[in-house]
Amino acid sequence: MTELEHRVQGVDHVAFPTFDPAATVHFYRDVLGFPVVHSICAAGWGPEDHPDFIHFFFDIGNDDRIAFFYYFGTEQSVGGAPGAKGDVYARFGADVPEFFVRSRHLAIHVDNEADLLEYRRRLDASQWPVEMQIQHETIESIYTHDPNGYMFEITRAMRPVTPQEDLDANLTIDALLDVVGEPEPSFGKLLARKAELIVGRAADWEPAR
Which residues form a coiled coil (predicted)? Predict the structure, then answer.
């Protein structure tokens, strides 16, 4: 496959709706210390029934931002049946496993353990204390839910990711795409297909190395 030139420079912003702008500002600006850096006030937008709204942005470092929409006059009526899981805007059925629900989240990274623990201190002193602190593979993360019910992660690298791990990631994805294209995909089939790809490509790696 021909590799396309990589031209993007990171995240400009990710955006979410909120029914509680006061709590959202308190969490991101006053608890975490992310300054407000931009806002857009609009009297409607597009269709005639579009409500007036404010779109406001917080600086999360590296010229990246997290943003929220607050729609005036819109009641918090979005949601699922009683017992539904997820945030107040994207509900899952009560039978959906918790691990699936929590996989939908935003992660922000810091440089070191001291910074991670500082954000843990800020969160633990607030209404939104850390719910989990986990080391997994190459990163350590803390997790909580923001005032809107969105899963929120702050993470730090425990070591650099090596070029060999980048190669392994591409092998894994190629194997995954092969496996999910066939009936009854499984983790065992993924590992078997990955082993086949390693054997098939190994001859080309030595000259490149």
Answer: none
Condensed to tens digits (0 to 9), the pLDDT of residues 27-47 reads: 999 999 999 999 999 887 777
Amino acid identity of residue 84, one-letter, is A
| 140 in Cβ contact with 122 (< 8 Å) | no
> What are the two backbone dihedrals, phi and then psi, of residue 185, each rounded to the nearest 5 degrees?
-65, 150
Specify the DSSP class assigned to residue 207.
Answer: H
Residue in 142, 82, 148, 80 with CA at minimum distance from that of residue 109: 142
Adjacent-strand bridge partners of 68? 16, 56
Residue 79 DSSP SS3: coil
* Stretch (H or E) spanning 108: strand 105-110
pLDDT (0 to 100) of residue 43? 86
Beta-carbon contacts of residue 80 (< 8 Å; ≥ 6 apart): 86, 91, 92, 93
pLDDT given at position 88: 65
DSSP state of 124: H
Residue 73 near residue 54 (C-beta atoms within 8 A): no
* pLDDT given at position 208: 60
DSSP string, 136-159: ETTEEEEEEE-TTS-EEEEEEESS
With a threshold of 0.85, does the pTM exceed it? no
| Residues with Cβ within 8 Å of residue 92, at least 6 apart in sequence | 80, 84, 85, 86, 100, 101
Q: Which residue has the tokens 């805007």?
A: 89
